[in-house]
Every structure is written in C-alpha cells, then in structure tokens.
Amino acid sequence: MTQDGFFRRLERRAQVGPEPLRALRLVAGAFLLAGTAVAVVVAVVAGDRRGLLLAGTFWAIYGLLSALFGGLLEPLTDFTARALMDVGLVRAGGGYSSIETLVARGHHEAAAEAYRERAGDPRHRVEATLRRAALLAGPLGVPGAAAAELESLR
User: Fold this and answer.
1) pLDDT tier at 44 (50, 70, 90 boundaries)?
2) How would residue 92 be classed by pLDDT, with cut points 50, 70 and 90?
3) CA neighbours closer than 13 Å in the CB half-sphere of residue 36
4) Alpha carbon 24 to chain centroid, angstroms
5) Which pairs count as long-range contacts for 60-64, CB under 8 Å and 24+ apart, including other chains?
6) Pick the residue with more confidence: 11 or 58?
C-alpha cells in the first residue's frame, strides 16, 4: 500500500457522514436485534408466550429509537451545526470584488460610477474615492478629474 493511499483511507474514515448518530443507532439496533433473537428462541424452546411479548417489546423499542434518532436528533444536530457555522460570517457583497470584476472586464466607466456610489457611504468614503481616483487617472485617462476627486477628499 502506498503512503498516498493510506492517507486517503484515513481521510475517508475521519469524515463525518450525513448521519452523525449512525454509530449509536447501529449499536442500539444490534443489542435490540440480539435481544429479539434470544427472546424468540426462548419463546420457541420454552413454549412460553412471554418470550414473544419480550421480542415485540424489543422490536418496538428499536422502532422508537430509530424514529427518535432519525426524526428528531439528527435534524436537531444538523440545525445546530448550521447555526453555529453561520455565527460571525460577514454578509456577501461588503467588499469591492463586484466593482473590481467590472474593472477586470474592461467596464471602467461603470466601475468608476460604482466607486462614486460607494463613496457616498461615510464608512467607505476614503477607500472608494482613492480607488475611483486611481481608475480615473489610469485606464480612463482623466488625471484632472482624479486630482479633483482627491482634492474633494480633503
């Protein structure tokens, strides 16, 4: 076995599947299935109906646990995981990436207008004005307008 294959297998084992409580459900199911089998064997060998009642009880408990895990605990853990992962994230669109995309595509006038609109917000005024001035002085070829933008920034 190569070292690369070893690490791939190790990564697969470390990944959490779509059902995080699957192991617990399998263990409980195995115990209840074994108990059901023993109860049925006891009922057949001893000829006692109480063994069949015990087997039915084990089967009902298994169904209840499956419903509890599959219908309540797993959706609850999925919701909690999503809620905790979203804490502290910044809303998309807060940066300048959309405007920089316009610049990269060659839509310089539209980008300059977007920077002007962004400069209307006092929090982004300085940075947006500097970016607009760089765009005006560079690709748009209007250094006088860029100087006027920088003078208005004072």
Assistant:
1) very high
2) low
3) 14
4) 24
5) 61/32, 62/28, 62/29, 62/32, 62/33, 62/36
6) 58
